[in-house]
Amino acid sequence: MPLFSRHLLGLQGVPREDIQLILDTAVTFREVLERPIKRVPTLQGKTIVNLFFENSTRTRISFELAQKRLSADIVNFSTSTSSTKKGETFKDTVKNIEAMKVDMIVVRHASSGVPQYLTRISNANIINAGDGAHEHPTQGLLDMYSIREKFGKIEGLKVCIVGDISHSRVALSNIFGLKTMGADVSVCGPATMIPRCIEKLGVKVVHSIDQAIEQNDVLNVLRIQLERQAGASFPSLREYHNYFGITSERLEKFNKNIVILHPGPINRGVELSSDVADGPFQIILDQVTNGVAVRMAVLYLLGTLNTRESR
Amino acid sequence: MKIVIKNITLFNPYQNLNKKADLLIIDGTITKIGSISAGESEGARVFEFDNKICTPGLFDMHVHLREPGREDEETVITGSNSAAAGGFTGIACMPNTTPAIDSAEVVNFIKQKAKLHLVDVFPVGAASCGRKGESLSPMAELFEAGVVGFSDDGSVIKSAKLLRFALEYAGMYNLPVIEHCEDESLAGGAMNEGFTSTFLGLPAMPSVAEDLIVMRDIILSEYTGSKIHIAHISTKNAVEMVRLAKQKGIKVTSEVTPHHFTLTEEALKSYDTNTKMNPPLRTKDDVEAILEGLKDGTIDIIASDHAPHSIEEKEMEFVDAPNGIVGLETELGLALSELLHKKVLSLEQIIEKMAINPRKILNLPVPQIREGELANLTFIDPDQIWTVDVKSFKSKSKNSPFDKRLLTGKALAVINKKQMYFEDKFFDI
Ligand SMILES: [Zn+2]
Prior knowledge:
By secondary structure, chain A is α/β, with parallel strands linked by helices.
């Protein structure tokens, strides 16, 4: 069964069957990761470029590992260009890469819409590894995989995304994916961090972290970008931690089994207290491992699209 | 030289003129209106514009010519060519050039460049030195050099105090201050803020950033008694405030661009940077309010905000791409398609907003279609169906979201300054 699209630009509009297929395929690859020899020849002869215009060591390493495990040829291109010359560099880089006839491009960029732009000028399969505050679909998928692994299902679960929703690419991918899979999704954070009209995506907005803990099965806690403090969309890190941070005292108050996700890297003492970050409720390191498996699944499904279609 | 135009509808609401006749133009002057005999036509170049319309030359009061400074994007000449191709015989050009139009030298430089061209080019002077919003530009000197208004367009006039001074100074010459309404502390995003910006994950600016400045400007216009002109109005609130201000007798006028009455923020879903402009494309509610404002006269003028940008600059990441689109060559087509044929405005209202009102606001004479007058005319086929092709634009830049769009209505020719533009060519008449 081929995927709905030959690119993975976001989880918006991706049908349920496709998400299901990716997650199920990831289960197989998750098993591969437990073997002594963790490599399969699936993408032998395919060339993948990891085009990272924004620094993200974790995501890049995760993609790179997934690609190596599938035996693909990898080219890494990382740059954090100066903002003034950004445009020229960007266009020239893309033209150059395209001229090398690559099969897939994994792209990360600070500006929303760059993966869409690539689909217009390149014949490669495009995988979005995070664009602006838009989407980060493989993160959304690995979060769903981790939730499903923990609960055995996604449908009917109550999931709250906590933090700076306005500037998050993880939030939108989670919202689109989880809604498609039948979860009940809400967001929690200070009003200044909730983008306008988000309710129209069918999510509830709460501003009390206690309420979020009380009412949900899963909290997906976003990283507070420390540099945003200067933009003054919240008063201080200390205050944020006191009112929106997740601490063991808060969790104990409700005495319930809640699952805590975090896309990393964690700001200990800000969105999560240190004991929560290492505590029994979080599955943060599982997410990291699952991330490789989910990315393998996506690369495999897109990379073998033609062969599978012709069968 | 002698030209004859047969069987044309002469249409000028300013003169209450709407009749079919032939037109004899000798050496650029309207010599006879009526039935032109074969004898009178002898030696003349004859144009058969059967059932087409002749109006006073159209005027666009919001054009960015980029010269001096960015001649790679547009020059006075290429911008004027673009204007003629779009059916305009006059334009006002905005002062955000490099250097800004904040001295008589720059005004004279532009006027010199435009001198021999068919299209009349009227510079708008900067309201502040260098458009920096710090100190008043030499407004008396600029007036004497021939500017038709004052603006820091591209930016808002940064402080209420400076705007007050600018209004008071401009008031001495009965010229308008033309304002780009945007509260800079709220602005800075790449699109309109709302559901679509949330959906697309793009940094956004709220429509109230425009509203707040419109409110400030109306209040200061009332206080000083001077004319304020709201450029490229785009929000529902702004339209409502202008309507109320007019009812109160405040000297406020406003203009809208074709893209703001044609497109909504939905167009950004392609992440095409040709949908990025400032003010940004707004919501359906805003567009509806704009159409209402056009109908009831709250919005006096249609103007393009013609903003040429090089392909290199436009073809980049959405957030970093510059704002604005070229508009002169699609403006009339969009006005006729979206407003006339969709029965929002009558032809009379469109000609008022595209030829008469802009000149009135800028204290320029409105061309008359009358024997003895120097011909300043636009010939329009309101029913011609054509496809926009940016490659055929006379403008140096091609940044338009309307490429490949089917439009109904087009300018066939223009006449001004004893020259004619017809079928891609300029010639003396
Ligand atoms: Zn402007």
